[in-house]
């Protein structure tokens, strides 16, 4: 996938992964290409992908997806991607309580600065790693409910609930 950076943005080396690694890029690649690449590269800035879904009544819906980098150093760029977005997917890793805390930061950020009426989903990814789970599913459900968001646990690795995640927005 191509990397798009806003004009004037610098490409920097990523020596502190921060809250990256929750599986955002893998979720998008699973949805768009039906693939899982365990060696996929860290997203720099953001990349753009699209996927068109045919509905039963033969109309189509085109998802235009910005896959952002979650790193703190790119936080200033994030509004460039979520401004004007109708939908936001905030992902954490069910094996990482830190990533769940960071997801809550992004929820608040989008509540403050996202488009009015933005539809948000909270996603607990890496659901295939049940034996390493550190974020109880109920914590995700409760937080999402309190904040009026959809909630789903996914695995980009096994493809579990990936299509269901995007179908939520069609509904
Ligand atoms: P991002 O920084 O949020 O975009 O995370 P990536 O999509 O780059 O994934 C980070 C790492 O987690 C990679 O090593 C992936 O192979 C791995 N990963 C992503 N999704 C899953 C998943 O559902 N299950 C497991 N076991 N690993 C995953
Ligand atoms: Mg990424």
UniProtKB/TrEMBL annotation:
The chain holds residues 60 to 230 of 230 of the full protein. It comes from the Eukaryota. GO terms for molecular function: GTP binding; GTPase activity. Keywords: Nucleotide-binding, Signal. This is Uncharacterized protein.
